[in-house]
């Protein structure tokens, strides 16, 4: 199932090198990304992979989308969003899809870090839970009602207990088990955050299964060699001078790992 078929970036780029987000996407202006069931946006820090995910989330009006940083140039951000375009996909009977599934969501690395960190103060935990309700689309009135409820107190007690019981990595895996569901479109920014290599592979295998058997679609920003090597994905290399696809073993970050362990190969023999 493809919920999102493609995304075209605005072809209008300001000549001013300080204009955001034009300077981020200068080498990709007007390009069209064609999506598979799992598509990876690979790139080093500053490559624009997280910004691109957020741009897509904003254009699609997805839960979890953040207002894009403007640095005083909000008119250019709005223009770039408006001039970018997309096409939704088709179901298994090749019928066009007219809207995204209701549970589709953009999950950022910051969301994971906030979810798994040790929260010491009850007020911080309460604020985080209420913020999560806003992200999920609840109205102000619904959130205010929840704030006074026994349901919220019970959930806080459970989370506070769990934070003492589970490690960051275990909490992160539990988060994905609860939030990655069949039949949805997910944009994931560095889902490997806080995960061991073994759990990164386990999570990637889970996403493979959801995409292949349960009609989920993923667009993922990552530079983890373990995730890259496990996913059955189309990979866009945002570090290249022009937008292009690549095999996972060709990517610089993967090659760095290979060269490092090859250099120390005798220690493993």
UniProtKB/TrEMBL annotation:
Q: Which CDD domains match?
A: ABC_ATPase
Indicate whether Metal-binding appears among the record's keywords. no
The UniProt record lists the AAA+ ATPase domain at: 35-253
Q: Which Pfam families match?
A: AAA_21
Stored InterPro entries: AAA+_ATPase, ATPase_AAA_core, P-loop_NTPase, Siderophore_ABC-ATPase
The GO terms describing molecular function are: ATP binding; ATP hydrolysis activity
Name it: AAA family ATPase
Could you mention a single GO BP entry for this protein? iron ion transport
* Compartments reported by the entry: Cell membrane
The keyword Transport is annotated on this UniProt entry: yes
- Taxonomically, what lineage is the organism? Bacteria, Bacillati, Bacillota, Bacilli, Bacillales
Species of origin reads Paenibacillus xylanilyticus
Q: Which UniProt keywords apply?
A: Cell membrane, Ion transport, Iron, Iron transport, Membrane, Transport
The GO cellular component terms are: plasma membrane
Q: How does it sit in the membrane?
A: Peripheral membrane protein
């Amino acid at each position: 199932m493809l919920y999102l078929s493609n995304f075209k970036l605005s072809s209008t780029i300001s000549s001013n090198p300080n204009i955001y987000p034009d300077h981020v996407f200068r080498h990709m202006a007007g390009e069209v990304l064609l999506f598979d069931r799992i598509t990876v946006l690979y790139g080093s820090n500053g490559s624009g992979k997280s910004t691109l995910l957020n741009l897509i989330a904003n254009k699609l009006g997805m839960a979890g989308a953040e207002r894009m940083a403007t640095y005083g140039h909000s008119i250019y951000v709005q223009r770039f969003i408006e001039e970018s375009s997309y096409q939704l996909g088709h179901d298994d009977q090749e019928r066009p899809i007219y809207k995204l599934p209701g549970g589709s969501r953009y999950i950022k690395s910051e969301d994971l870090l906030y979810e798994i960190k040790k929260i010491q103060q009850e007020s911080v935990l309460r604020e985080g839970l209420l913020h999560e309700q806003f992200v999920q689309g609840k109205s102000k009135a619904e959130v205010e009602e929840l704030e006074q409820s026994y349901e919220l107190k019970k959930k806080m007690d459970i989370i506070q207990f769990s934070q003492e019981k589970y490690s960051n990595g275990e909490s992160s895996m539990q988060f994905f088990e609860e939030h990655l569901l069949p039949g949805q479109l997910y944009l994931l920014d560095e889902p490997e955050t806080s995960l061991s290599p073994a759990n990164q592979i386990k999570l990637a295998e889970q996403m493979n299964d959801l995409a292949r058997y349960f009609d989920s679609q993923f667009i993922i920003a990552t530079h983890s060699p373990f995730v890259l090597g496990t996913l059955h994905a189309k990979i866009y290399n945002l570090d290249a001078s022009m937008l292009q696809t690549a095999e996972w073993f060709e990517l610089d970050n993967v090659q760095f790992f290979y060269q490092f362990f090859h250099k120390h190969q005798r220690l493993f023999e």
